Amino acid sequence: MEFDPRLEYVECPRDAMQGIQRPISTQAKIELCLTLLQCQFDILDCGSFVNPATIPQMADSAEVIQAIAPHKGRTKLLVIVANLRGALRACSLPGVDYLGFPFSVSEAFQRRNTNSSRSEAYIRLAKIQALAKAAGKEVVAYISMGFGNPYGEPYSEEEVLTWVRQIQKLGIRNISLADTTGQASPSSIHYLFQSLCHSDLHVSAHFHAQPQAWMEKVKTAYDSGCRRFEGAFGGFGGCPMAKDDLTGNVPTEQVLPWLISQGDDHSLITEAFEKAAEVARNTYG
Fold first, then answer.
1. DSSP-assigned states of every residue in 89-113
2. DSSP helix/strand/coil, 152
3. CA-atom Rg of the chain in angstroms
4. Can you name the residues that pair with 101 across neighbouring β-strands?
């Protein structure tokens, strides 16, 4: 399959909200997502079906999705699942298009995040892929700790590629390389995206970075062939299971205009963009 050069953008209010300790009302989440849908992002990462005791902010994801699904237009909805129970809930909702599963190249983080080993997580992912396929949905495999980890474990780009190839054998074509703790270096970014983007995989860049440090990462991935990027307004977010100090997402209000300025066509509704940024800032606080 030839490389698809079309720019795609994944807006991630779920990732932005999950690390915020202050409860955000269900209605506020619905209003935020409805505003984001007006921008016509390609994908909206809008909820997760995980243990509410672990991430209480996401306990109302089903209610949010049911409210916004009739208004999604061209945007596809993505939710995160960590086990079969969550996958079954996601598959029961007609509005959900993608199930995202966090698969870590770090054994320590896989156990911390999903209470399983990597081999157990791979088996779980295979079962989730079968459920999703039967329900007419797709799976996105998030390669957590894809650029290194803070746990002192050995890391190599080749190990990342080996796991991606194993996941590809399950029939999963959507891969999101996740810079979980913001450690990605330009050399690792270039090597991985150059290796994966010119293939039949649909590869996304999910970077975490300090507010002014996003440009080098995004530009390197873009120059290496990546055309699907993920971020959140205000640079909020990060994985609360990774470590205590969150490193936020790349800021949509800066990243997406830069990507479009490179000459790529995107269906972004600019009139809604500024309004969405304002609503997001107010919601995240």
1. HHHT-TTEEEEEEEEES-HHHHHHH
2. coil
3. 17
4. 141
What is the per-residue pLDDT for 218? 98
Of 130, 218, 190, 200, give the one whose Cα is nearest residue 164: 200
What does pLDDT average to in each consecutive run of 10 residues of the chain (285 residues)? 71 94 96 97 97 93 98 97 97 98 95 92 98 98 94 94 98 97 95 94 94 92 97 83 64 94 83 95 94
Read off the tokens for 31: 């209003």
Task: Write out the two tokens for 15.
Answer: 């990732």
Nearest by Cα to 184 from 223, 224, 216, 226 = 216
Alpha helices in 135-197 (DSSP H): 157-168, 186-196
The encoded tokens of residue 222 equal 């873009």
Q: Residue 48: which H helix or E strand, with range?
A: strand 43-49
Report the distance separating Cα 85 and Cα 78, nearest Å.
Answer: 16
User: Within 13 Å of residue 147, how many CA atoms lie on the same side as its CB?
Assistant: 25
Gap between the Cα atoms of 266 and 246, Å rounded: 30
Class of domain 8-284: alpha beta
Bridge partners of residue 174, in order along the sequence? 140, 202
Q: Which residue has the tokens 């953008």?
A: 9
